[in-house]
Amino acid sequence: MNLSHLWAWRPEVCEAFSALRGLLTTQSSLSDRELAVIVCATAASLGDSYCALAWGKKLAAASGASTAAAVLQDLESDALTPRDQALSAWARKVAGNPNATTPEDVEALRAAGFSEREIFEATAFVAFRLAFSTINDALGVRPDWQLAATAPPEVKQAVTFGRPSAEQTA
After folding, report:
1. Is residue 34 within 8 Å of residue 126, measured between CB atoms?
2. What is the CATH number of the domain that holds 114?
3. Would you list the DSSP string of 1-31?
4. Range of the domain at 147
5. Is 135 part of a structural domain of the chain?
6. Stretch 77-105: mean pLDDT
7. How far apart are CA 134 and CA 55, in angstroms?
8. What's residue 136's pLDDT?
9. For residue 45, is it within any domain?
10. Which candidate, 54, 123, 134, places its Cα nearest to that of 90?
11. What percent of the chain is modeled with pLDDT above 70?
């Protein structure tokens, strides 16, 4: 994996990121689908093609490729639950400008059925993804061609941002 080459400089930091991800998610009531929505919306907001492809593939497996593409492109879809929609909007706001979030934005999460703990966990997960993606993107990690080759066509077509995969440049 292209990520492995980058993180080989400090594998203990990569292991710490993995441990933090586990700490954030293992005792969370956010579903795997909801975590994938968070990452897809965050990655798309940042223009992170690697995470968008990887997590778009996960979201497609959980909810369908057209649903994953809708989140990646910030489009409305009947397949998105109110929770999906609220998480996607929140992740984009936090990734884009956390200082611009409002009490009304938090209230939209509550109205979609999120508890105070889940709102905290979703926000912490966005922040975690921002840190991880920033390192990868700033140091030029490109999506593995294998990842791009195995992503559903709708997901690949939705990821029109970020660094191209090796497959796209070969």
Report:
1. no
2. 1.20.1290.10
3. -HHHHHHTT-HHHHHHHHHHHHHHHTT--S-
4. 30-161
5. yes
6. 97
7. 16
8. 93
9. yes
10. 123
11. 98
Q: Label residue 37 left, alpha or beta by phi (over 0 means left) and psi (-120 to 50 means alpha).
A: alpha
DSSP-derived secondary structure for 53-106? HHHHHHHHHHH-HHHHHHHHHT---TTS-HHHHHHHHHHHHHHH-GGG--HHHH
Q: What tens digit of pLDDT does each residue of 24-71 get?
A: 999 999 999 999 999 999 999 999 999 999 999 999 999 999 999 999
Q: Which residue has the tokens 């954030």?
A: 24
Long-range contacts of 29-33 (CB under 8 A, 24+ apart): 29/115, 29/117, 29/118, 30/118, 30/121, 30/122, 30/125, 32/58, 32/62, 33/59, 33/62, 33/63, 33/84
d(CA 71, CA 155): 10
Give domain status of residue 125, yes or no: yes
For the chain, how big is the Rg over CA atoms in Å?
15
* Mean pLDDT calculated for residue range 115-144: 95
Is pLDDT of 167 > 70? no
> Into how many domains does the chain fold?
1
- Structural domain includes residue 5: no
Rounded to whole angstroms, the Cα distance separating 37 from 12 reads 28
